[in-house]
């Protein structure tokens, strides 16, 4: 199993540009999550999904959108990038009640 | 008040020392607890689950005190490779994980 994969690893955006952060998992987990982690800080939940077709907002959803058309994929969309969205983005998945598995992260800089 | 609170540290300890981290949580309905380890510029990885009766995994011991709503992690005989940030995590009834801000440990030779 590849586990949780994320692309790209790094990206630099200009203010106002848009992009999609990709996340995929091959473990057939129902739950998937997007977090952001600012330097020296903890993880903040952006959006999550409890299964295909179901998504919900986390703690910091503003400026982001998600979709979950299949169990495997959970892309995160930034429509109008702002400097405040400079962060490391982690995607994660888990089965019910157990360990959460993280992807390697995407480092995003908005200039 | 944050839902899961940790002392950010850093804790600077010599090799071989014993170090303990505490974490408090505010959600009395939280069901399960975990300690995750995060190396610099890497993703968090599960270190160990925390059971009500306390549990040990090699040099690591985790304990849960539901009455006082705190969790602890004890590391014995610290190694240089233990240097990392340790994240306290709780799992609530909605299957949501809440992460603390992390405690940074630096083990020096």
User: Tally of extended strands of chain A?
Assistant: 11
In one word, what is the shape of chain A?
A: globular
Low-confidence stretches of chain B: none
- Oligomeric organization of the protein chains: heterodimer
Mean pLDDT rating of chain A: 94
Distance between the termini of chain B: 37 Å
Question: What does the largest sheet of chain B look like?
Answer: 6 strands, mixed
Helix content, binned percent of chain B: under 10%
Write up this protein.
The complex is a heterodimer of chains A (111) and B (109). Chain A is mainly β. Chain A has no helices and eleven strands. In chain A, the strands form two sheets. In chain A, strands 2, 4, 5, 6, 9, 10 and 11 form a seven-stranded mixed sheet that branches. In chain A, strands 1-3-8-7 form a four-stranded antiparallel sheet, with no helix packed on it. In chain A, strand 5 and strand 6 form a beta hairpin. The mean pLDDT of chain B is 92. In chain B, strands 2, 4, 5, 9, 10 and 11 form a six-stranded mixed sheet that branches. A five-stranded antiparallel sheet of chain B has the order 1-3-8-7-6, with no helix packed on it. Chain B is mainly β and 109 residues long. Chains A and B meet through strand 4 and strand 5 of A and strand 5 of B.
Topology readout:
The complex is a heterodimer of chains A (about 110) and B (about 110).
Chain A (H helix, E strand, L loop, with lengths): L3 E4 L2 E4 L5 E7 L5 E7 L5 E9 L2 E4 L6 E3 L9 E3 L8 E8 L6 E2 L3 E5 L1
Parallel strand pairs in A: 2-11
Antiparallel strand pairs in A: 1-3, 3-8, 4-5, 4-9, 5-6, 7-8, 9-10, 9-11
Chain B lengths: L3 E3 L4 E4 L4 E7 L6 E7 L6 E6 L4 E3 L2 E6 L4 E6 L8 E8 L5 E3 L3 E6 L1
Parallel strand pairs in B: 2-11
Antiparallel strand pairs in B: 1-3, 3-8, 4-5, 4-9, 6-7, 7-8, 9-10, 9-11
